[in-house]
Amino acid sequence: MKLSDLVTYDPKLKLMKNPEWPEEILAISAFDHLQLKSVVFIKNAKFLQKFLPFLEKAVSLRVGAIIDEKFYQLMNTELKAAVDQLPWIAVSLQVPVTLTLLSKPFYDLKMNGVNTQVDGRQMGTTDIDPSALISQNVFIGEHVKIGARVEILPGSVILPHSEIGDNTKIYPNVTVYPFTKIGKNCRIHSGTVIGSDGYGYTFHQGQHTKIWHTGGVDIHDDVEIGSNTCVDMGTFSPTVIGSGTRIDNLVQIAHNSKIGKGCIICGQGGLAGSATLEDFVVMGGRAAIGPEAHIGMGSQVAGGAKVNEGAIWPAGSKLGGHPAKDLREWMKGIAYVRSMSLKENSKE
Fold it and tell me: Which of the residues 115, 251, 326, 342 has the least number of beta carbons within 10 Å of its own beta carbon?
C-alpha cells in the first residue's frame, strides 16, 4: 500500500512529511514489535514516551507515524526533531478512528491469498515431521509446520501459517487460527480456541466499528491450556504466553496480553486487553485483570479479585477484593464490616 492510498481510507488524514514517500507500507506495528516499512500510531504524550525508546529501530526499519494533529502542533522543538527522523509523518484529528479504518486494508493485505478451504497436505505446502501422529478428521492449513512427535486428535483445525513444536499434544476439537505459534512439549485441551479475533472496536458514526487484528499468538514451550479456554490474537503484535505456564479450563486471555513464565491461572479467570503478568504470578478462580494492568513477578491474586484498568502492582503483591488491594487490608475491611453488621443486629 502506498502512502497516498492511506488517504482513500481516511480522507481526513493529512500528510505532513514526505507525502511522495515511494516505498510500500506493509503493516501496522506495535511499538515493541516493529515491522519493516510499517506505520505506528501516536495519540498523545503518553504514547510518544512509550515509542521514543524504539525510535532508532523504527528509523532503521523505515517506519512512518500517524500522530494526533493537535498533539503534533503542540510538540516542542526537541520532540518534533525526534519524530522528524522518521521517513514520513501524517496527522489525524481522531487517531483511534484512523487506526480502525486502516486496520481493515492491512488485514486484507496480510490475509490476501491465504487458503482456508483446501488442506495444505493436498496442496503440498505443509512441513510435517514423519513422526507426527495426526488423526482422521483433522484439517491442516497451507504452510503449517508441525514438529516431531506432535499428536493431533480428531476434529482439530490448524489453520494456515501456524507452527506446532515437538512433542506437543492437541486434544480433540481444538481450533488454531492462522499465524499462531505453539512451542514444544505443550498440551492444548479440547474445545480451546487459540488466535480468534481480539475484542476491539471504536465507536464511529453511530456504530461500533471493528478493529481488524493481525498480531497472532505466541505460546512458548511447556505450556498447558485447559478445555474451552480462549486466547485471542494480538492487535498488531502477538499475544504471548510464557514457558511453563499452566492455564485452567474456561479462561479468557484477551488480545496483546503478555503472560510470563511459570504462571498459574485458575478456572474462569480472565485477562483483558494488554494486561501483563510477570513470571510466576498466580491467579485464583474467577480473578480478573483489567486492561493494561501490570502484575509484578511472583504476585498472587485471590479468587474473585478484580484488578482495575491500568493498575500497577509490584513484585510479590498479594491482592484481593474489588477493586483489588493488598489482601490483608481487604480482609481487615471485610472483618470490620462484618463486626459492625453484628453489632447493629445485636441492637435489634
Answer: 342
Residues 102 and 230 in one domain: no
Q: Which of 89, 111, 133 is where one domain is finished?
A: 111
Exposed, middle or buried: residue 136 (CB in 10 Å: 0-12, 13-18, 19+)?
exposed
Task: Please give the pLDDT value at position 347.
Answer: 65
CATH number, domain at 75?
3.40.1390.10
Instruction: Name 88's Cβ contacts closer than 8 Å, sequence gap at least 6.
Output: 3, 15, 17, 18, 19, 21, 64, 65
Mean pLDDT of 31-40: 96
Q: Per-residue pLDDT tens for 168-223?
A: 999 999 999 999 999 999 999 999 999 999 999 999 999 999 999 999 999 999 99
Q: Hey, how many other C-beta atoms are within 10 angstroms of the C-beta on 339?
A: 10
Which residues constitute the domain of residue 133? 120-329
Query: Residue 31 corresponds to which amino acid?
Result: F
191 and 291 together in one domain: yes
* Residue 220 annotated among the catalytic residues of the structure: no
Angle at 108 between CA 107 and CA 109, to 5 degrees: 90
* Structural domain includes residue 9: yes
The single residue of 161, 189, 220, 255 carrying the catalytic annotation is: 255
Residue 16 and residue 138 in one domain? no
Query: Residue type for 111, please?
Result: M
Which tens digit of pLDDT belongs to each residue from 4-21? 899 999 999 999 999 999
Q: Average per-residue pLDDT in the chain?
A: 96
Q: Structurally, how many domains does the chain consist of? A: 2
* φ/ψ bin of 10: left (φ > 0), alpha (ψ from -120 to 50), beta (otherwise): beta
Q: Which of 68, 84, 111 is the last residue of a domain?
A: 111
Residue 103 shares a structural domain with residue 219: no
How much is the pLDDT for 117?
A: 95
